[in-house]
Write a structure and sequence with these properties.
Blueprint (H helix, E strand, L loop, with lengths): L11 E7 L8 E7 L17 H14 L2 E7 L1 H7 L1 H14 L7 E5 L11 E4 L7 H22 L7 H4 L5 H10 L22
Parallel strand pairs: 1-4, 4-5
Antiparallel strand pairs: 1-2, 2-3
């Protein structure tokens, strides 16, 4: 059972990101404020749900949430400020879109950069513990997946409709064969140790 809140009787937003470990595409983040009485047995960490269930839950969350926001930082900025700072920035962008100001934030993970002096708590594997973080994980994941499916139409050889930019064997082989696209993160290791790529 997911817990409804970390701190009772205040407006609390859960935050999570998607795409941190990818070698192509942006990082997305979401922030969600759920009603005090929200409960859905399907709600869970997005990684534990099927694509079909994630889409169903996204619609439910967007309909029933008190407020939600989604933010994105693209691959070029990831290369400039690093993926950790990009993840924080994407979360800040998501929080800026909330039309209710939360009094407390719960963040999936163990690090965060303060946002507007709002108190926060970092929770390792929070998307499997708290409903609002699980809801945020679903929004971040589904919005990012849709974005990568759109990019797949531009570069179908890289299989982004299935790997979503993660470093699968087929994705790395496509990079080795065809080279990187403008959407690949140059600051990431695009190939594993058995592969070589000349960027010159």
């Amino acid at each position: 059972m997911l817990k409804s809140f970390h701190t009772d009787s205040i407006v609390e937003a859960g935050c999570d990101e998607a795409g941190r470990g990818c070698i192509a595409g942006p990082v997305f983040a979401a922030a969600v404020i759920l009603p005090p009485d929200f409960h859905d047995p399907m709600l869970n960490d997005s990684k534990k749900l099927s694509e079909k269930t994630r889409k169903i839950m996204r619609s439910i969350v967007e309909t029933e949430a008190i407020a939600f926001g989604v933010g994105m930082v693209d691959e070029k900025e990831i290369d400039q400020i690093n993926i950790l700072n990009a993840s924080f920035k994407a979360m800040h962008k998501a929080l800026e879109k909330l039309h209710h100001v939360p009094e407390h934030l719960i963040i999936d993970g163990n690090r965060f950069k303060p946002f507007r002096e709002i108190p926060y708590t970092c929770i390792v594997k929070g998307d499997a513990k708290y409903a609002s973080i699980a809801a945020a994980s679903i929004l971040a994941k589904t919005y990012r997946d849709e974005y990568m499916e759109g990019l797949h139409n531009l570069y179908p050889e890289y299989g982004w409709n299935s790997n979503k930019g993660y470093p699968t064997a087929n994705h790395r082989e496509a990079v080795l064969k065809l080279g990187p696209t403008p959407y690949h993160r140059r600051s990431f290791r695009l190939l594993n140790d058995q592969m070589r790529l000349d960027f010159s």
